[in-house]
Amino acid sequence: MYIIMVASECAPVAKVGGLGDVVFGLTRELEIRGHSVDIILPKYDCLRYDQIFNLQIAFKDLWVPWYDRAVHCSVYFGFVHGRKCFFIEPHSGENFFNRHMFYGQVDDDQRFAFFSKAALEFMLKSNKHPDIIHCHDWQTGLVPVLLYEIYKFVGMTHPRVCYTLHNLQHQGVTREHILRATGLNRHAYFFHPDRLQDNFNHAALNLMKGGIVYSNFVTTVSPRYAWEIMNTTQSFGLGHTLQVHRGKVGGILNGIDYEVWNPEIDRHIPRQYGINTLDGKCDNKRALRQRFWLQDVLKPIVGYVGRLDEQKGVPLITHAIHYCLQHGCQFVLLGTSADGRIGRHFWHLKRHYNDNPDCHIELGFNEELSHLIYAGAEMMVVPSRFEPCGLTQMIALKYGAVPIVRATGGLADTVFDANYADRPYHERNGYVFNDFNNAGIESALHRAIGMWYSFPQYFRELMINGMRHDYSWNYPGQHYLNVFELIRDK
Q1: Any bridge partners for residue 244, and if so which?
Q2: When you count CB atoms within 10 A of the terminal residue's CB, does the N or C end of the chain come out lower?
Q3: What is the spatial distance between Cα 423 and Cα 379, in angstroms, rounded to a whole number?
């Protein structure tokens, strides 16, 4: 099967969150299974160019219709750790992708509408006829719209579209100028509740809604999240649209790349270890303490690694720090925030605990350091308000760091409570709480800390249960191929 991924991110060259990891990891799995996969990305000026091998011009003169003119583009090709990637570089006054950042611009809607148009124009002009076009999030929501309203009439009748929703909080709500820009025009046709009209602001267009309506199949990144977005407020207004199209909606749990996240081969940690050499984790714990000048005492280390924003549960992260330090634990945090208010809050916490020998707060992003925290910590907190999938808890499991999570989205699909899960004991791997409040996370922390101190052999079994489970791309890869086969035959 020939598959083209159209995405705004691909790790490690363009990574903001889990989307980049998914595009790279799934592509690699599909290639291992014998399928041909190309990835199309914007050529941002802030790409990790040191991670691209043999970058060269692949298509010199791509002219992309835009408003009443055409924008000249160059398309580059290069290998990203073996993945075949095409990078679209527009040459225009709008300067779409030379902004020193991936997202966060006032014209993001136009930037990614142009990218969606350019990706299809490149496929058309370079005579690419994939079986499947796999699009991701609102940034590429226009791809199936443009395919079925324009490009199928000029020769692209073969491709079918799978559209993956990674996070419904961001939907690409925009105005009618996108129709004029992309050549879709026909305002009355697209400003219709069955097409692109936003469900609440009828003067606006919703690019993610367009992707849902026009694609052949819609996936989300965990089965629980698929249920939540169709039955709770986590749809952020798209619940009705998803219900209308529920026959083509399903949840496929993300995987993680065990070539990168695996303590047995991890080159970023001082001591590699596995299920049969779990005592090696103690050396990493010691190294983590030395790195952050924590005292070497008989206490567990609780960690947090990830973005610091409202979705991730800032109040509960804060409360977990206080609670753990008051109840015989050390706490290590690695995170960064795009929200100035939240950033200031954690800088205040950092100063408050600066001289505490049991706490270290590291504000920033450091991939190598995150490996050491997973390898050195015995527990990881993930108290999200909502979590479409979550990679933190799956990485933690592989590293024998027992996750303490809120029962939402992919967290509920991957972490099974040590005391209360309806699973056999060998499948239980963490601690789960339901209510988004201090009492909720305290209940889980109390049980986890108590187990570590009072029943260390059972805590060790929990660690091993987590390390044993397979959250690689093996199973998700097959599930995606099943979807691709389903829609290819339609």
Answers
A1: none
A2: C
A3: 21
The predicted-structure confidence for 147-202, as pLDDT tens digits, reads as follows 999 999 999 999 999 999 999 999 999 999 999 999 999 999 999 999 999 999 99
Beta bridge partners of 330: 301
Alpha-helical (H) ranges within 278-408 are 281-292, 314-326, 340-352, 367-376, 392-398
Measured distance CA(278)–CA(460) in Å, rounded? 9
Total count of domains within the chain: 2
**C-alpha span between 306 and 256 (Å, rounded):** 15
Q: What is the pLDDT of residues 343-395, one digit of tens each?
A: 999 999 999 999 999 999 999 988 899 999 999 999 999 999 999 999 999 99
- b vs e for 260-269, b when ≥16 Cβ sit within 10 Å of the residue's Cβ? bbbbeebeeb
In a domain, 264, yes or no: no
Closest to 116 measured CA to CA, from 79, 161, 158: 161
Residue 260 covered by a domain? no
* 184, 328: one domain: no
Nearest of 273, 236, 267, 231 to residue 251 by alpha carbon: 231
Instruction: Taking the CA atoms of 416, 167, 371 and 450 in sequence, report the sign of the dihedral they define.
Output: negative
Residues 237 and 318 in one domain: no
32: domain CATH number is 3.40.50.2000
Domain that holds residue 452: 275-468
| Same structural domain, 298 and 373 | yes
Residues 292, 152: one domain? no
| Structural domain contains residue 270 | no
Cβ 373 vs Cβ 271: under 8 Å: no
Residues 23 and 130 in one domain: yes
Q: What is the pLDDT of residue 200?
A: 94
| Strand 249-251, strand 217-220: pairing | parallel
Q: Copy the structure tokens of residue 396.
A: 């933690």
CA distances (Å), 40 to each of 5, 314, 474, in order?
6, 34, 23
Count other Cβ atoms within 10 Å, centred on residue 322.
Answer: 15
Please tell me the distance from the alpha carbon of residue 56 to that of residue 67, in angstroms, as a whole number.
29
Task: Give the model's confidence band at 464: pLDDT under 50 very low, under 70 low, under 90 confident, else very high.
Answer: very high
User: Structure pTM?
Assistant: 0.94
Identify residue 342 by its one-letter amino acid code.
I
